[in-house]
Batch of 2 targets.
Target 1
Amino acid sequence: MKIHVEEDKCVGAGQCVLAAPEVFDQRDDGIVVLLDVDPPAAELGHIELAVRVCPARALALPEA
Amino acid sequence: MGCPFDHTQFPVPRDGVFTPSPAVAPGPPQQVKIWDGSTPWMFTRWQDVRDVLSNPDVSASNLAEHYPGAGEGFHEVRLRYPTFVTMDAPEHGRLRRMLTQEFSVKRVEALRPMVEEVVDDLLTKMLARPAPLDFVENFALALPSTIICRLLGVPYEDAEYFQSRTVVMASHRSTAEEATTAARELIDEYLGDLIDRKIADPGDDIYSRLIHQHHLTGEITRHDVKSIARLLLVAGHDTTANTTALGTLALLVNPDQRAKIEADPDLVPGAVEELLRYVGLAHSGARRTATADIEVAGQKIAAGEGIIAVNTAADRDASVFADPERVDIERENAREHLAFGFGPHQCLGQNLARAELQTVFRTLFRRVPTLRLAVPLDEIPFDDMSLNYGLDALPVAW
């Protein structure tokens, strides 16, 4: 599963980290960092929530 | 379109503590009339609010000719002391990113022991006093004020002073002169003096880091630093205080929901999301202007027209939240509320707010199991004429 991350759009709200802590983290400056570039299918629900709650619409699941 | 004199005056007074007026029920976009006589477009449905707040042709700048300011006084304060809240990319991102690290999930997690200590300490003090007492003054307002003071590096002895200035700045009833006088006292005098003290004697706090890492390096002016400190100080106490008071009230009048939390503290994080949705704090909505001709929900908005996205109305949208007028702490999708807004301007301090509220509702009914209202519900003074909704007092006993 590939996740599309637009770092420039990220506003550091941390919502992805709360939704899918195994997949997303924040750098020291608060900006999103992908912990797992190819997360397992079991994470899909969490990742979909992260995509939905990201206020900056910086995340996407291209194949979805 | 009807005659402009038919437009609803916004904001609209509530029908009850937790009952918004039907005039702001989720529905198609419509024009409303605000304090300056202008008629911005109001968006109330969940999907529309998300779409409009993340539309790249919608600006948060308050410099636009038809920007729908949130009240005469507060609009003037924001013009004189601008922060990234009323800026667009790229300036918005440049300034906001100076602070994102302070409120990241990891940083806020590390603050939890401090938050727990403050909550416990305030409850111990409250329980040592005779009941009934005002829960707002003794707990709900004291908690976030103490915490933002510690984080920002502002002496807590001065809390009463900045709280009183905040009330005047944020009231829809304040004139421009009243609000800017309060702002000048708080920002230019009080927060300005504090800059000099932190230049000479920096502390381990956000204000010192802003000054030393971003102001003295020439990235932002002294005026910017003061204005950002005002934003953090006000946003850091007023919002969480009112959500704590309103959330507590919601649980006191819904004993079945309170019993669930008491029986299973693991329900607290979900309960906090539901309370954020339900209490409808930021009822003034997000103020924007279209920078190009756009179409949202089938409605054409012309370039330059004002927009108010009412996220608290969206949080009562029955197409997203089933039975939205009911507080249900186990609501599966409560997390999709828009209480912190949406788009690039979504609340910077939301993770701190969550940590504070989660600690409150994990601790309050355990420490004060007999907590109850000391007056009938209809005698509780609520304030729906401020930027954020709140309670002027919440008399409780135990």
Note: Chain B has a mean pLDDT of 95.
Target 2
Amino acid sequence: MITVLGGWMMAKNLRLKAARAVRDMSQAKLADAVGVTRQTMNAIENGAYNPSLNLCIAICQVLNLTLNDLFWEEK
Amino acid sequence: MKNLRYDEYQLKNRHQLAFQTLILIFVLVMTNGLLKESYGVWAPPLLEALILIFIPGMYFAIMSIAKNAYFRKKDYPILVIILFGLAAVLGLFSFVPAILNGTFIFVENGQLTNQVGSLFIPILFGGMVIAIIVRKMINKREDAMED
């Protein structure tokens, strides 16, 4: 579940994937709702890209969740 | 957040590719200098400049297509495929007859000839069309798997 990217270890965002699945939303639909491409959403879920705070907030608003629910990682 | 511009992941990829392209330009300019120093003039000045621009330009275009960073969401890849395909086919007409006649000369007096320049358009646009089609097919397969 860990992706190595440019020396950084990034975990897959399974919570985002699960939240999307609960709402029966495809990556493409969520991507459209927040104004990015499906490939960008895929990269976020796979841990290949660390999204900006603006994009995180937009995703949370569409999924009606908080930043903690989707993006906060306990050490 | 509407889809008028590249999204942030596309921008990140484009910045990364732009930096790689810059490094490629440094390498090509250096190689060109060393080649001229050791071998001498290898192409007419205009062709030499075109080659030094063409290689990094093509690298950036093809790689940004491969990384989904060439088209914005509002763009129409099909229209681009048609236009670029047309440009590639028209470009073919500029040198294929000469090759068939046997009048196309690649190298003369140890230098590339200006005729080589006519290969650039079909190679660039043909390469981009192929890259766009392959990328679209991969995206379609990924979409189908995701659904």
Note: The mean pLDDT of chain A is 87.
